[in-house]
Amino acid sequence: MILDNILGLVSVDMGIDLGTANTLVCVQGEGIVLNEPSVVAVRKGTNRVLDGAIGLAAKDMLGKTPGNIAAIRPLKNGVIADFDVTQAMLSYFIKKVQKRSYYYRPRVVIAVPSGITAVEKRAVVSSAERAGARKVYLIEEPIAAGMGVGLPIMDPVGSMIVDVGGGTTEVAVISLGGIVTSESLRIAGDEMDEAIMQYMKRTYNLMVGEQTAERIKIEIGSAFPLEQEKVMSVKGRDLMAGLPRKVDITSEEIREALSEPVSAIIRAIKMTLERTAPELSADLVDRGLTLAGGGALLRGLDKVIAQETGLPVRVDGDPLTAVARGTGIFLENLDRFSKAIESEEDEG
Asked: In sequence order, what are the residues at sequence separation of 6 or more whose Cβ sits closer than 8 angstroms to the Cβ of residue 65?
């Protein structure tokens, strides 16, 4: 432990939010130093990563690659789907953050969904170690998000966090540094994009790609009626004629398209509340719940959750970085929060 702390003084220890859509890295004393898409470009059939084609460079290739190249996301629903590619991506990000100091391997804290299996956890640890980490700690995303948004998770009061990421939605009630009850739902931002793609196909016979669907969600997507509804022109491929075509769509239509994933998130919140102990439920009446993750930016999501649950709902000021900020706080207080962190030895 003493040697570990000494090495910690010369290495760039980091907290990582290894997300399905984006990977964020937080360094002690510096805050968020990296925020890039969890996308890698590989040669088809070999899984050999193209030089420099990781993160932002690779995302630009999504849906636009020639036949011998594929731009892929190595994580699905918050867990590793492609071990080798995830290892290459992590190694790239770690070295990018370490810069001149990567001679000393860093300690790494990685946030993982609360619902993943022991096998999936071991895959994350192994991937990070092979990517260059000296020691790997896993913490559950709701704990990291709760810390990141400033909830008093170590106190004997109920705090509720809803983290809507790219691949998973984490709903948890936290007290005394641990998760009392939770729901890990593999429906989040990616499923919202998929719902938009299916709506465009079903309603307009228009095929649009992932990036276009995401842009629609960001520009006119909503979960609750807007004061002034929006209109957007969308380009894609006509499924009947096979030719490029443009259509105008409204925010009301996209709200309809998003109704199913939004309803699933609300059901998960209600299920978690139903399992919460009375004393903690009493705390939530006044304290309400906090929204984090990229999905929290969906217009009106806080309003529809408040309407359905009757609880106050707060959106964190910077929901996209909440989990990464939380991993940084855990990293700075490893001894104090050790009970809430699962190390490789715990997994063994």
From this structure: 41, 71
Alpha carbons 170 and 182: distance in angstroms, whole number: 7
Helix axes 189-204, 210-220, angle to 10 degrees: 100
Residue 114: exposure state from Cβ atoms within 10 A (0-12, 13-18, ≥19): buried
10 Å CB burial of residue 319 (0-12, 13-18, 19+) is buried
DSSP letter for each residue of 5-36? HHHHHHS--EEEEE-SSEEEEEETTTEEEEEE
pTM, two decimals, is: 0.89
According to DSSP H, which parts of 149-277 are helical?
A: 189-204, 210-220, 251-274
**Residue 233 exposure: Cα atoms within 13 Å on the Cβ side:** 3
Least confident of 40-49, 63-72, 243-252, 308-317: 63-72
pLDDT tens-digit readout, 293-322:
999 999 999 999 999 999 999 999 999 999
What does the alpha-carbon distance between residue 214 and residue 133 come to, in Å, rounded to a whole number?
33
Which residues, 6+ apart, have CB-to-CB distance to 171 below 8 Å?
Answer: 142, 160, 161, 162, 163, 182, 183, 184, 185, 265, 268, 269, 272
Q: Domains (ranges, CATH) in the chain?
A: 2-36+76-144+322-347 (3.30.420.40), 39-72 (no CATH), 157-187+263-319 (3.30.420.40), 189-257 (3.90.640.10)
Per-chain mean pLDDT for the chain: 89
Residue 308, token pair as written in the block: 């359905």
